[in-house]
Design brief:
The structure is a homodimer of 366-residue chains.
Chain A lengths: L3 H13 L4 E4 L2 H8 L14 E5 L5 E4 L4 H7 L4 E4 L4 H11 L4 E5 L5 H14 L2 E5 L2 H6 L4 H23 L7 H14 L4 E2 L4 E4 L20 E6 L1 E3 L2 E2 L2 E6 L5 H19 L8 H13 L11 E3 L6 E5 L12 E4 L2 E4 L3 E4 L2 E5 L4 E3 L10
Parallel strand pairs in A: 1-5, 3-4, 5-6
Antiparallel strand pairs in A: 1-2, 2-3, 7-10, 8-9, 9-12, 10-11, 13-14, 15-18, 16-17, 18-19
Chain lengths: 366, 366
C-alpha cells in the first residue's frame, strides 16, 4: 500500500501545471505511486503504465499477464487491460476522462512510442506536455516507513557480506565470489541484486566498475567488493575492500586514507548543505594524501527504489540536501596496475547531520 | 570478433538510405555490430553507443569505465571516450566525419535524449533520420557460427534443467526451485538467466508469466518451468511441465495434447512459410481437443542475442520465415483454478523444414 499523500502531492503538482493527467511509464515511479510491484523486462517490454488524472480515480493500464497482481497490489487504482495495445486503450480513455493536456515522462518514453502517442494525441486534440522528474522529486525524501525498508535492505546486505566473506579463500575467482554473494542474497530473502555485483581483485580493482573475471584471488592484494540487493522494493549499495592473509602495506595505507575521507564526507552531510560540499570534504582528504587524481568519480548518489537516483554528491552537484534523503558515501583511490580501494556506506540526511544506515564497521577501521 | 560482412551489409544499407552514419544505441545491436559485450544497466545508463559511418572506420563511444574492454573486444572500432557526455563528443565528431544525414535507432532512444540530440543536430545542420530495425534485420537470420552458439546455450539449458530437476522434491517452494536453476546456470558457466525464471505449480501455472511464489510444490500437480540462459551472448528459452509423484490424469491428458500441438507447429515450419501458419497448425490441435480458448498467447518468437526478437509466430504474423531464423515453439493450455501446461523447444528454420535445437526429449512424450 502506498501513502495516499504521494498521490495527493502528485495531483496537486498536476493542477499547478494545468495538466489533466500524467502518464507514468518509469517502473520505479509506477511502483512508488501505485504500490504495483511488477518490473519491466526491458524498456520495450513494460508491465504497465499509470494514468493519473488531476482529479478522480487513478488508472493502472496493463495486460492480462498482470491482471490479478495489479488488482491485488494497487487497490486504489482502476485496472484496465490493453489487449490491443496501450495506444488503443488510451484512444478510448483520454476522451472519456476529458483529458486535454496530458503530461508524459519524457525521460522514460522511447522516441518511437512518443511518435505514435503524438499522432494519437493530435487526432484527439490532446496536448502532450513533457515532464521529467515530477514523480522522482516526490521520491527523493524518504518517509520513516521507506527509511525502515532501506535500513532492512542495508542490514541484509551486511549479513550477506559477512556470511560469504567467511567462505572466501585464495584461489577462488572473482566470478565465483560474485555468484556466491548473489546466491546468498536470494537465499536470505532478497529479490535479487540491485546491480551486477563487483568483485575486483588486485589490478582489476583499478577499474571502478570492473566486471568479475575468472582471475583467482591472491593473498595480500586488495579486493574491492561492491554489492547491493533489493528487499521489498528498496535497494542497498555497499562496498568493502578486503585483503586475504597479511595485507599489502600499501593496501592498509590506502584503506586508512579512504576511510578518513569517508568520515570527512559523512561529517559534511546535513540538511541544507549543497551536494558538492561533502564531495569536497572527502576529496580534500585524498588530495592531501597525494592521491587526488586517483579518485575520479563522485562521492555518492541517492538510493531508494532505484539504486541510482537523486541527489548526487559530486563536484558539480548544486542541489541542497534535505532531511530524509538517502545517499551513499563512497570515496575511492584507483592506482592503475596496482588496484583499488573503495569504501561505501549509506546514510540518511537529517536536519542536524546524518544517520548511518550501516552498522557493521568490520573492514572499515584497519 | 564480428563477421566483417555484417558491417558491410550495414554500410550498404546506410548508402541505400543516403545516410552518412548510423548511431546505434540498442545494446544487442551494439554487440552484434561491434563484438563489444558490455551490457547497459538500464536504458538511462548506457555502456556506450556505436557511430557507424557509411564509409571509413566505425567508432565506439563510451566512458572511461569501459575503455579497456571496448578496445579489446572491438578491435576494428576507434574507441572514443566522452568524459563530458555523449552529446559533447558528437558535437566534435559529426562535423569532423562530415555527417549531414544521421540515422538513429528510434525504437531505442529516449524522447528526452532525442530532444537534446535534435537541438545539437539543428545547430550543426545535421538531419536526423529515424531508423527502426535496420540492425535487427541483419540479426534475424543466423550464421552457422551464431547457430552453434545458440545450440550450446540450449544444451547447457537442458543440462541445468536435468541437474536441478533431480533435486526437486514436494515441499520445496517455487522460488527455491527458480533460485536453484539460476544458481546452477551460473555455476555451469552461463552469464546468467536470459529472463526471470518461471516456476509455477498448480493453479499458479494458469498465469503464463507467473512470478515464482513461496507456495510449496505439491505431488501430482503440473509444474510449469520456463527458463532461459545467456551463454557467450546468445540466449536459450525452454519450458517443461513436470509432475512430482503420480501425475494427475488431467495433467497427462493436457501434456499429450500440448505435445501434439508442438509437433504440429514444428512440422509446419520451413523457409517461405508465413509466421501465422505454424501457429495455426498448433492451435488447431488444441482447438480440436476442446481447449482452444485456453491457449491465449502466440506459438513462438525469435531468439538470438535477445531472448525475444523477430520473427513472431502468432495469429497476426504476416512475415515469411527464412532459413537461419531461430524460433521457439511453445503451445500451452491454461485452465483458471487448475493450472497450466506449456512445452517449449527451439528450432532453426531450414529450406526444407526445421532443425530441432533441443536434444533432450524427457518430459515431452508422456
Amino acid at each position: 500500500m502506498v501513502a495516499e499523500s504521494s498521490l495527493d502531492f502528485l495531483r496537486a503538482a498536476l493542477r499547478r501545471r494545468e495538466l489533466d493527467a500524467l502518464l507514468i511509464t518509469q517502473p520505479e515511479n509506477r511502483r512508488f505511486v501505485s504500490g504495483y510491484t511488477a518490473g519491466d523486462t526491458s524498456v520495450n517490454e513494460s508491465a504497465g503504465v499509470l494514468l493519473v488524472p488531476a482529479k478522480g480515480t487513478p488508472l493502472l493500464l496493463t495486460d492480462s499477464r498482470f491482471d490479478l497482481q495489479a488488482m491485488a497490489e494497487a487497490p486504489g487504482f482502476a485496472v484496465h487491460l490493453y489487449p490491443r495495445g496501450l495506444l488503443a486503450l488510451l484512444e478510448s480513455l483520454l476522451p472519456r476522462l476529458g483529458v486535454r493536456r496530458l503530461g508524459f515522462e519524457s525521460h522514460y518514453l522511447l522516441y518511437s512510442t512518443f511518435v505514435k502517442l503524438a499522432k494519437l494525441a493530435s487526432r484527439l486534440g490532446v496536448e502532450l506536455v513533457p515532464q521529467a522528474g515530477l514523480v522522482e522529486r516526490l521520491r527523493v525524501r524518504k518517509s520513516e516507513a521507506q527509511l525502515a525498508k532501506i535500513e532492512r535492505a542495508v542490514h541484509l546486505n551486511e549479513a550477506v557480506f559477512s556470511e560469504v566473506f567467511q567462505g572466501i579463500v585464495p584461489g577462488m575467482t572473482e566470478r565465483q565470489v560474485a555468484h556466491a554473494i548473489e546466491n546468498c542474497m536470494r537465499q536470505r530473502g532478497a529479490t535479487g541484486p540491485s546491480f551486477d555485483t563487483i568483485v575486483a581483485a588486485g589490478p582489476n580493482g583499478a577499474l571502478p566498475h570492473a566486471v568479475p573475471s575468472d582471475r583467482p584471488l591472491g593473498e595480500g592484494e586488495p579486493i574491492v567488493i561492491d554489492m547491493g540487493l533489493v528487499l521489498d522494493g528498496y535497494c542497498s549499495d555497499m562496498t568493502r575492500t578486503v585483503v586475504l592473509g597479511a595485507p599489502d602495506e600499501k593496501a592498509v595505507e590506502l584503506i586508512r586514507i579512504v576511510r578518513k575521507a569517508q568520515l570527512a564526507g559523512m561529517a559534511a552531510i546535513r540538511a541544507g548543505v549543497v551536494g558538492c560540499e561533502p564531495d569536497r570534504a572527502a576529496r580534500n582528504v585524498i588530495k592531501a594524501a597525494g592521491y587526488g587524481k586517483y579518485f575520479g568519480h563522485g562521492l555518492g548518489h541517492g538510493v531508494g527504489l532505484a539504486v541510482h537516483e537523486a541527489p548526487s554528491l559530486n563536484r558539480r552537484a548544486r542541489k541542497q540536501l534535505a532531511a530524509g534523503m538517502v545517499v551513499t558515501v563512497e570515496p575511492g583511490i584507483y592506482l592503475p596496475g596496482w588496484g583499488g580501494v573503495r569504501l561505501e556506506n549509506m546514510v540518511a540526511v537529517t536536519e542536524q547531520g546524518y544517520r548511518l544506515l550501516n552498522r557493521d564497521t568490520t573492514f572499515l577501521d584497519v
